[in-house]
Amino acid sequence: MSASCRRKWVARTANPLLANPLLANPLFANPLLANPLFALSLLAITLLATATHLFAPAPAVAEPPAALKDFRPDRLVRFATRAEAEQRRERLIRFIWPDGLPTRAASVSVDSPQTPEQRLALLAGPLRGLDATSTEQLYALDANLPRYDFSTRLYLVAPVNSRKPKAQLLVIHQGHQGGLGDGIAELANAVLARGWHVLIAQMPLVGWNRDNTVKIAAGPERTVKSHDDIFAQFATSQEPLGAPFQLFLEPIVQGVNHFVERHPETKSIAIAGLSGGGWATHMAAALDTRIQTSFPVAGAFPMYARHFSAGSIGDAEQTFAPLYGEEDSDDADTIADTATGAASWLEIFALGGLGDGRQQIQILNHRDTCCFHGDVYETYSGFLERLVERLKPGRWQVHSDRTHQTHSISPAALEKVILPVLTQDRP
């Protein structure tokens, strides 16, 4: 979720009555309001204005602008063969971790719940919304990054009855949500009931992730106040350009490492996330080919498309130019059409679906109240579907969810897109 989206959320939770201009009118201080009929009339007007504010439909969604009519997305993808695609994946990995994908595993925390009472307390607190009847065990995991003296928390939830002979894991990334709302709990409960294990993650500095200090290049401890500040603090150091992404993405890798160490017979690993969690889903699937299936929901657009979808610019982890860089090759139309960074967004999308038994379904809410809405995805979706199909194996597609007007994982996306894919038989 971008900073602008968070401001919109605060605005939506404010009492509209208190913001109504009628209440600032000097008439409200006038003794004439002693007339009950006059006062009731003004109250009716106020309530009508409030209802209009609360129930106004989402803004109309425009078609892709004429400026993108002849846009060529192929110029944002620098691989034409499977081998070249894997080279780009390796370059992306090394941009973030110069020594390669981390092998360190998250560890069980010392404050992981040990008793039924502690488990119930967790389900009534940070994990409110999870169905206690579907959870057999809960583990609090710590993903530690010793180089930066930084840590984040993950929660691993085991189902009551795993009917599968081999373990299956769904990573669910909440992003900036700070809780299990907006369809996240419903997704977790649905897969737990079907025998899947669930690993729940959040962004740094969000929700239960309270660690807000880092040590960079063995220097003094630094306090970081926001995601943008994380990138700003690293920018003043000699650390690799992609190092800030480790704080966001290594916890996912460490969580998967923990699971496969304890379940060497793991059958399948999938990931889904909303908003910032959708961003993390795109990135994790591009980086780690052990993740076979991914469902990023309202998580990202290529850089050129963000200017045609209000609220979609995003925080630094979404737009960091050394990674996602796009430039206008001719300066004639001011639309970025050439990849210049370590991996463009279209390359990241494709890498999320490329590989044996792999697929990615990008879920975009057509009238999302936050970001990544509208029809601009049509400028790249067909191209990417054909590219991944040609490079083989793998699959990539977009699902435009037109059933609602919220920033969420909708019931329709869960029942008609995610669950049918997760529950299909795999060898």
Question: Could you write a compact summary of the structure shown?
Answer:
It is built from 15 helices and 13 strands. It has 427 residues and is α/β, with parallel strands linked by helices.
Describe the overall structure.
- This protein is an alpha/beta fold.
- It folds into two domains: 3-55, no CATH class; 66-422, 3-Layer(aba) Sandwich (Rossmann fold).
- 36% of the residues lie in helices and 16% in strands.
- It has helices at 3-13, 16-19, 36-55, 82-96, 116-124, 184-193, 227-235, 244-262, 276-287, 303-306, 316-319, 321-324, 345-353, 381-391, 411-422, and strands at residues 107-108, 135-145, 150-159, 168-173, 197-201, 213-215, 221-223, 268-274, 293-297, 326-327, 338-339, 359-365, 395-401.
- Strands 1-2-3-5-4-8-9-12-13 form a nine-stranded mixed sheet, with helices on both faces. It has a two-stranded antiparallel sheet with strand order 6-7.
- Strand 4, helix 6 and strand 5 (197-201) form a beta-alpha-beta unit.
- The radius of gyration is 23 Å and the shape is globular.
- It starts with a helix and ends in a 5-residue tail after the last helix.
